[in-house]
Amino acid sequence: MRWSRSLIPTFREVPADAEIVSHQLMLRAGLVRKLAAGIFTYLPLGWRSISRVATIVREEMNRAGAQEINMPVLQPAEIWQESGRWSDFGRELMRLRDRHERDFALGPTHEEVITSLVRNTLRSYRQLPQNLYQIQVKFRDEIRPRFGVMRAREFVMKDAYSFHVDDESLDHTYRDMHDAYSRIIERCGLDFRVVEADTGVIGGAESHEFMVLATNGESEILSCSTCGYAANAERAELRLPQTGSEATSTTPEEVSTPGKRTVEEVSGFLGLQPSALAKTLLFKVGERDVAVLVPGSRDLNEAKLARLAGTPILRMLEDAEVRKLSGADVGFAGPVGLPPQTAIWADRSLEGERDFVTGANRTDAHLRGVRPQRDFQVERWGDLVLARAGDTCPRCDGRFESSRGIEVGHIFKLGTKYSEKMSAAFLDDGGRERPYVMGCYGFGVSRTVASAIEQNYDDDGIRWPRAVAPVDVLIVPVNVTAPAIREVAETLHEELSAAGVEVLLDDRDLRPGAKFKDADLIGIPTRVTIGERGLREDKLEIRNRRTGEVQVHPRSELAGAVLESLRRENAD
Ligand code: ATP
Ligand code: MG
């Protein structure tokens, strides 16, 4: 591969609209270019890295016994209506209409397609289990596409789906996928951690996420060093101690709190701890109005709320809706005196509460001495609070510590959720119809490339882990107009290529400084420099971009030395 004939548009300036390093470096190193928000073209170097990750994924999936297929991106609305996700997926589903006015979606994931395939083709228990996968572009209309290919609207994913006669068989494949994912990420050369995860709109009983550790990661991980429990903060279970204040009141008493809306303002004004208050948040859950109560000192976890609700279709009320429902300005809503059709759900820690402060549903007023089940009825209790560092681990007496990660993989035990909704059944050994037990396993191929950069860079550019670098070796002839230099560089290019090494030859007629800067920026792990002095003294330099280690070899031994260093690194 010759740089002069390749599309590698590097540049120096930090792009203003790229917030995180991997996004900046993917643009600067000429890996990708943006077409529209969350939509990218992969240029030659970027696509090579994607392909290398895809190859590792493919090898490990095949090794684990999964079979590669390729399903349609364009999917008829009917199968999404069957599963109920035509509405449940919400606005993240990209929808379109054909010339006959029929509705379609662009696949964000393929549970519906695979289930409709399997129910017509895998009918006997004798054919099960099976695990089918594809590596394909996915579409999701993310609310906030950002961080480049990390959270894109069009991205490359490996998705696998397994079908079983029972839970035991699913558990087996789930463990195999867990191991395959660990091997994939290890082979990519990345540091990661497996955590318990929320099942979100995909649904199901159990799931784990594979997090590449990175300070800029979008996901917060809470982990307990005492018992090893680790979970996505969205998911992390919590059992807050019940606050159980002294009961002094017989009825709630209204107090004037002019202009005091936030927990800090109200508790400060009344001279109370924030935990003596309960926050009331008003939601639309499906068609219902729901008031959600959490302790004043804590934040609501919306993923937990969705789980308690049994549907992801929920949203906070707009200001005008809050005024209409509570009869007061925003900041003064409370559980006492809401319209009777309003459901009240509360965090379990408030169950023993005898006496707390809430909004009065009247502007500039709060109620003191409020008691659940006496002054208002709670329809559902649940774990609704966002866990945070320092909280007590729900499994032991340890404390949560917080770290950040990028979710590159996500595995789920779906159970019979899709097979039941879509009437997908096999015939068991007694000839009876039974719904398939299913698992699904997603891996973000393009996101993995971004996370590899997020974990491996320095001030000068990318420091690719060997396995996912776009090419293995960069040859830099310092001056391409000098025939002797050019000759050696070209011959080395041929020798290495013949040995199966992927090589980029920087044959551009540029100043050496500019070439070295670009070399550091694109971050190819091995760089061989051919310069006038090196040739004269017969000492040519091989530099490792990751370690900075430099070796010097005579011309005659150069190709052998490069091959030997690649061999050694691969063996490590
Ligand atoms: P997130 O919580 O980041 O939105 P998700 O739970 O929606 O992810 P899954 O549905 O489990 O993701 O998809 C499987 C994998 O696909 C993820 O682990 C991630 O690596 C990748 N992925 C998901 N959404 C995107 C996106 N918008 N851009 C790039 N990769 C993505
Ligand atoms: Mg998502």
What is the average per-residue confidence, as pLDDT, rounded to a whole number?
A: 95
Structural class: alpha+beta
CATH architecture of the largest domain: 2-Layer Sandwich
* CATH domain class name of the largest domain: Alpha Beta
**Overall radius of gyration:** 29 Å
Task: Choose one word for the global shape.
Answer: globular
Uncertain regions: pLDDT < 50 for 5+ in a row? none
How would you characterize the largest beta sheet? 9 strands, mixed
The small-molecule ligands in this entry are: adenosine-5'-triphosphate, magnesium ion
Keywords:
binds adenosine-5'-triphosphate; 15 helices; 28% strand; binds magnesium ion; Rossmann fold; 3 domains
Describe this structure in words.
It is a single chain. By secondary structure, the protein is of the alpha+beta class. The chain has three domains: 17-188 and 417-453, Bira Bifunctional Protein, Domain 2 (BirA Bifunctional Protein, domain 2), CATH 3.30.930; 253-382, YbaK/aminoacyl-tRNA synthetase-associated domain (YbaK protein, Alpha-Beta Complex), CATH 3.90.960.10; 471-571, Rossmann fold (3-Layer(aba) Sandwich), CATH 3.40.50.800. The chain has 15 helices and 31 strands. The strands form eight sheets. Strands 3, 7, 8, 9, 10, 11, 12, 21 and 24 form a nine-stranded mixed sheet that branches. Strand 5 (94-97) and strand 6 (103-106) form a beta hairpin. Helix 1 packs across helix 11 and helix 2 crosses helix 11. The chain is globular and about 95 Å long. The model has no long low-confidence stretch (mean pLDDT 95). Adenosine-5'-triphosphate binds next to strand 8, strand 21, strand 24 and helix 11.
